[in-house]
């Protein structure tokens, strides 16, 4: 039987793709080695300055809050108690208090550390300040508009980053107390934000209202890290809810839409462009958004929500692209500095939240390949 040249080429391509996939097989012990190197580097450089700031980030501020979330996940798989002890010392230094602004979602982020440690150690001091502040918010809810130009607008979740920062804390409080008031607030505010910022046509979130009518080289502006904040936030909320509940299913619907979209727009190199629909205009790698996307997608495969046969090739490319941007001493490069839109990233620049995102991604990748 003669094999047509075109068919032969296709067969060879399929075989080559299978070979490359096998050649890039991810080994769990190597994932842990890399994660440890990155985690240790960041702890040693915790008091450095980043994003052009003159001073280190406040230990209660959101950049460090995002780092702690990743470090917690690493601590759970590392088999070394020193990471939990480092995180406990952070909490003790902060006196287990949230950051300064009562309503602002960014200043709630560190609460995810406190409540996670409370789940582990059951020390009431880890829970009380966050619960007290959130009870105050429930009694005095913000009445402001979600419109960007309105007064006190960030007293509510009117920018997409907020969906990573505050909602998981509300979900944890509900999980820990069983009190529906925390869940009801979470659902009401999350639905309001989603209705306002989610683009049904693209299955992505605008950073805030000010970007809805803007165009970058004719394309809609969907910031990679901004959507990474949302995607990871969805995962962190669902981790606190029972799968059979209507609330879990609400978040799951959004998650699945975003997951489907994300694999359609991953670059051939494995990262996601800083402007998700503008790859040709933003060719520079960016690792914080990419890490959150990998975290969310790998979590979906690990929880039998996403089909491994479909999503695994994207995870392999994404993880390998992240590893390629880690320096020999353990710094994760190409982390876009603090901002609100697509911009620049550099091989020799990092940020604490980038490390946190990477450790989130690595934990789920490790779980995926450590399975027997």
Automatic annotation (TrEMBL):
Keywords: Hydrolase
GO MF annotation: an example: hydrolase activity
Gene3D superfamilies named among the record's database cross-references: 1.50.10.10
Keyword Hydrolase: yes
GO biological process entries: carbohydrate metabolic process
Transmembrane segments: none
Name of the protein this chain belongs to: Glycoside hydrolase family 88 protein
Gene source species: Flagellimonas hymeniacidonis
């Amino acid at each position: 039987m003669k094999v047509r040249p075109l068919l032969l080429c296709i067969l060879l391509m399929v075989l080559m793709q299978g070979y490359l996939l096998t050649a890039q097989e991810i080994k769990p012990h190597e994932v842990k080695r890399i994660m440890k190197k990155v985690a240790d580097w960041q702890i040693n450089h915790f008091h450095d300055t980043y994003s052009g700031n003159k001073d280190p980030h406040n230990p209660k501020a959101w950049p460090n809050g995002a780092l702690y979330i990743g470090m917690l996940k690493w601590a759970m798989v590392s088999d070394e108690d020193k990471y939990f002890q480092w995180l406990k010392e952070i909490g003790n230094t902060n006196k287990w208090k949230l950051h300064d602004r009562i309503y602002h979602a960014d200043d709630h982020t560190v609460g995810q550390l406190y409540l996670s440690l409370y789940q582990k150690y059951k020390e009431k001091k880890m829970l009380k300040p966050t619960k007290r502040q959130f009870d105050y918010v429930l009694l005095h809810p913000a009445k402001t508009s979600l419109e960007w130009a309105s007064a006190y607008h960030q007293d509510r979740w009117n920018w997409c980053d907020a969906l990573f920062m505050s909602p998981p804390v509300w979900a944890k409080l509900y999980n820990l107390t069983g009190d529906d008031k925390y869940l009801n607030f979470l659902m009401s505010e999350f639905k309001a934000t989603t209705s306002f910022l989610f683009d049904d046509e693209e299955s992505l979130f605008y950073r805030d209202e000010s970007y809805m009518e803007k165009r970058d080289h004719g394309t809609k502006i969907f910031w990679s890290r901004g959507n990474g904040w949302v995607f990871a936030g969805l995962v962190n909320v669902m981790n606190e809810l029972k799968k059979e509940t209507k609330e879990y299913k609400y978040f799951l619907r959004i998650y699945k839409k975003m997951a489907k979209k994300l694999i359609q727009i991953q670059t051939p190199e494995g990262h996601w462009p800083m402007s998700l629909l503008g790859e040709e205009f933003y060719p520079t790698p960016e690792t914080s958004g990419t890490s959150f996307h990998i975290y969310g997608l790998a979590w979906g495969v690990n929880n039998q929500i996403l089909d491994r046969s479909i999503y695994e090739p994207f995870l392999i490319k994404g993880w390998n692209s992240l590893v390629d941007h880690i320096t020999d001493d353990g710094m994760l490069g190409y982390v876009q500095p603090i901002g609100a839109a697509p911009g620049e990233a550099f091989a020799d620049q990092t940020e604490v939240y980038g490390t946190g995102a990477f450790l989130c991604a690595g934990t789920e990748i490790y779980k995926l390949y450590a399975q027997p």
